[in-house]
Amino acid sequence: MKLFDKKKNRRNSNSKKWDRYHSKDILPMWVADMDFESPVCIKNALRRYIEHGIYGYHSEPKELRDTLKKYLNKKGWNIKKDWIVLTPSVGAPIYSIYDLIPKTSQVIVPTPIYLNFLKAPKHLGRKIEKLPMKTENGRLIIDFKKLLSTARKNSWLMFVNPQNPGGTVYSKNEIKELAKIINKKNITVFSDELHCDLILKENLKHTPLGSIKEIENNVISFYSASKTFNVPGLNCAFAVIPSDKLRGAFKKNAQGIIDDANITGLIALSSAFSKGWKWRDDLIKYLNLNLQILLKTLDKYQNADPIIPEATYLLWVKIKNPKQKTYNHILRIMVWV
Ligand SMILES: Cc1ncc(COP(=O)(O)O)c(C=O)c1O
Hints:
Layout: H1 16-19, H2 40-52, H3 64-74, E1 84-87, H4 91-100, E2 107-111, H5 116-124, E3 129-132, E4 134-136, E5 139-141, H6 144-150, E6 156-160, H7 172-185, E7 188-192, E8 219-223, E9 237-240, H8 244-253, H9 263-275, H10 277-299, E10 304-307, E11 314-319, E12 332-334
Parallel strand pairs: 2-3, 2-6, 6-7, 7-8
Antiparallel strand pairs: 1-9, 4-5, 8-9, 10-11, 11-12
Helix pairs in contact: 2-9, 3-9, 4-5
Bound molecules: pyridoxal-5'-phosphate (PLP).
């Protein structure tokens, strides 16, 4: 655990997060990028690559697809290796997916949501239908009844699980309820499961939406080592697309993006998903300690109303009557500091 106490100065280290306010005394927390060093297994694997000294065009690590298949198998999803499509990030394919959706299709976007899901349709001149989420028992969740009444046949849904910014982990029952709606309305889903290895509570489990057999062919799922193992700068993620038709369309539309994951990211992904789990378990313990400290601090402020996250290292804090207090700038707090 001492590992996570180590403070490292990231100023002047080409950090997008820290460079934004470099001349001001501001702790930057505007992007999901931790200030922890990645595990030794990643550093060693990268060292071997660096030491080789020749950095030509690359192919993917031989063991990678087996590792990714095993990774999803542990989550209860038996995938085929050729369903995997490597990408340089999750953020970029959000644009190519929007571009792929027929102009006449209804696109449902539960809000709040990661910014690219709103920026991409604006950029591409696409209409979307926002579906405000509801807070139930302190959890920010999709209103399934509203979704059922809003969704037309053959629409698209942007789904994030665990949800960012609320940190909601949808239960197996909730996933099954959602799957029924998807099946009934034949909805196609972009399922962003990037934060699925950052579940803070031991009794909660991630259920991949694509693992529900009846809707397998309706779902494009995204995963990455970037958030959990703090390697977003190495540009690597992967999609799992069981439907041949959807996979073909996605690949065609994302030419130039797919199969362009960075080799350092592929090495980090392969190493993290095979040897990084003990480090991840320690990280979760540390994040829980930080969360408790932060919640205790926020307790002192009557008009700060945090949504206690079940996952992720982000904390969403609602500020009631912000004009009456001086700390109205606290909107989103990341809990690793
Ligand atoms: C829910 C969600 N999706 C996608 C991204 C972007 O991921 P990437 O760095 O792989 O583009 C983020 C980054 O914070 C995120 O929180």
